[in-house]
TrEMBL record:
The keyword Manganese does not apply. Its main location: membrane. Na(+) binds at residues 74, 77. One of its GO terms (biological process) is cellular detoxification of fluoride. It is found in: Cell membrane. This is Fluoride-specific ion channel FluC. InterPro entries: FluC. One of its GO terms (cellular component) is plasma membrane. GO terms for molecular function: fluoride channel activity; metal ion binding. The keyword Chloroplast does not apply. Fluoride-specific ion channel. Important for reducing fluoride concentration in the cell, thus reducing its toxicity. It comes from Bacillus taeanensis. The gene is crcB. It is a multi-pass membrane protein. Na(+) is not transported, but it plays an essential structural role and its presence is essential for fluoride channel function.
Length: 128
């Protein structure tokens, strides 16, 4: 049954990811992969919060935790797309853009994972 939960949540995460791609395509014309950056940073925040707020407190069942963490958030974020887009930028000789993308993804991901984690801890303390 856990596979069904992970699969359904994964489909939902993929749809959310696709909606970000569609939404940013009409607003963003620069050769910078904004949709992937947003999905990964939002996903880092969500997983940071979810790990602290929900999983560490055992507030959900293991199947639901797997569905949310691996399925929903895992399919929403995408390291492979990030990697391929970086290679494509380098192939197009957009070295500065590629470096900006890598640095902003790494720093933004860590920063937003930390924000989510801290928010989860703060909410945890307020319920004690």
């Amino acid at each position: 049954m856990i596979y069904v939960f992970v699969g359904l949540a994964g489909a939902l995460g993929a749809l959310f990811r696709y909606s970000i791609s569609i939404s940013t395509a009409s607003l963003w014309f620069f050769p910078f992969p904004l949709a992937t950056l947003l999905a990964n940073i939002i996903g880092c925040f969500m997983l940071g919060w979810f790990t602290t707020r929900i999983m560490k407190q055992n507030k959900v069942s293991k199947p639901l935790a797997a569905a949310m963490g691996t399925g929903l958030i895992g399919s929403f974020t995408t390291f492979s797309t990030f990697s391929v887009e970086t290679v494509m930028l380098l192939e197009e000789k957009l070295i500065i853009t590629a470096l900006l993308y890598v640095v902003s993804s790494f720093i933004g991901g860590l920063l937003f994972a930390w924000f989510g984690y801290q928010l989860g801890r703060r909410r945890e303390k307020s319920y004690d």
